[in-house]
Amino acid sequence: MNTFKIPWWRQLRVHLALGSLLGLGVLGLLVNLWNQQGRQQDLDGYMQWQDAGLASYIAARRVEPWLDAQGQPTHKLMRDTGMYVGMINPSLEIYLLDTQGRILDHTLEQAPAVTQIALEPLQRMLQSKMPLPIYGPDPRAPATPNLFSVARIAEQGVLQGYLYVVLRGQKAAALARSAAFADQLRSGYGSLLLALGYALLLMVWLQGRVTRRLQALMQTLLQYREHSGNAGRFEALELDGTDGRNDELDVVVASTRAMQQRIDAQFQALDQADSMRRELISNIAHDLHTPLASIQGYIETVLLNDARLSTAQRGQHLRTSLQHCKQLANRVADLFELSKLDSGQAALTLEPYCLAELLNDMVCSYQLSAEQAGVALRLSEDMDRQAKVLVDIALMERVFQNLLDNALRHTPRGGSVEIAVHALQDAVQVVVRDTGYGIAEQDLPHIFERYWSRPEAPAAPGAPSAAGKPCRTSSGLGLAIVQRILSLHGSIIRVRSEVLRGTEFSFSLACA
């Protein structure tokens, strides 16, 4: 017994475990980042609350004005202030701003990256209208807001500018980020990894309980499929594979679909076989009963009345029996031919052939029979004599034989049968028309059925009685065989008919 193996990287339990791990990891990371962000804001708010009055304290302890009489900054005061403040807290950076936010002086060793900052955060801080922390611009890193303290500078009630203190300078910010990352590794991310490890083990155990049963179901379906006639052909599974997985679920779905289709096909085949068996018995009984009864009757007549029969009568009885034997042979041949066509055993041998040449041979072979029946058989004068078609010549001869037999049998003396060929854009159309008795409209849907026999057409006013019409001696399979052969060639036969005016059969063949 074959065992269907799925690579481990395509197994459903691996996909579920990795998907769950990824989902929990992303969720845990987002939660951890959100917690760290909240903790950092709380720490920033506490730090800013502690140092909110630092700028005011520095501004109040000056020994001389921050700006001279010409409005220029007192550089010595700024250097002294920076030196003393740096000794107490090296992370502080002090800026002297004018009323428009332009930087007039600073305590940095190098010039800041910008020469002016926005005053809107400073105004919010001075008005205390927002909860802390309030982040303001950092002149050294404009893209990174920073904590600050601010105080107004005024002389005799006139605002001259602002003393702006950045509480967390560049060196302090770098140390804070390093410490925060280490803290995250020690606490947040470490806890997250432990939680993910435990969750992964739990999910693998739970998913294993589910997927083991699914794999058992998959193997059961595959074994059933193997024993139903597909042994050793697991590679024939038509997996969906739209998402590239082809895991256990895809195999189960594909196996179930294949099994269902196979069961349906088997039931249909059984129904069809039973129907064909019953139809075959009925057809054989129908086909063989009449000629066998006639043959038996004439032979019994010869045997019982041999002494009283003349040589001519005895010869007539034997010739009639021989004729019925030939009819019986033709019916059996038609029956086997139609059965072969219906079963799909007929193989086409397509080859290019000049249609006019084939039709000319057919007309010549039927000309004597047509003359004896008093029917004019001819090819259309305007037919395309150069048209070549791609057909199975032997089967196409059978088509024209059956159509001509049918036309001559149902065309009265004095009538005509004509064959026309017309070239279309990508095909060749063939038309066989006669001036026979025609077919009633209600009978047209049945003429291609097996053993259907057309009722006698009504006589036209002043026409001879129906008793003079030729009787139907065909097996009732001719048109059915024509339809099957043309269907094998990918063509559909069509019919038009009017009672007492004639019938026209037409179909198209592929150009060579």
Q: Which CATH C-level class of the largest domain is it?
A: Alpha Beta
Q: Looking at CATH, which topology of the largest domain would you report?
A: Heat Shock Protein 90
- Distance between termini? 51 Å
- In DSSP terms (H or I, runs of 4 or more residues), the helix count works out at 10
Q: Which CATH-level-2 architecture of the largest domain? A: 2-Layer Sandwich
- The dominant shape is elongated
Which strand order do you get reading across the main beta sheet? 2-1-5-4-3
Order of helix and strand elements from N to C terminus: HHHEEHEEEHHHEHEEHEEHEE
Structural class: alpha+beta
Please tell me how large the radius of gyration is: 52 Å
Could you tell me the strand content as a percent range?
A: 5-15%
Total beta-strand segments: 12
How would you characterize the largest beta sheet?
Answer: 5 strands, antiparallel
Assigned CATH superfamily of the largest domain: Histidine kinase-like ATPase, C-terminal domain
Key structural traits:
Heat Shock Protein 90; 12 strands; 512 residues; elongated; five-stranded mixed β-sheet; single chain; 3 domains; Helix Hairpins; alpha+beta
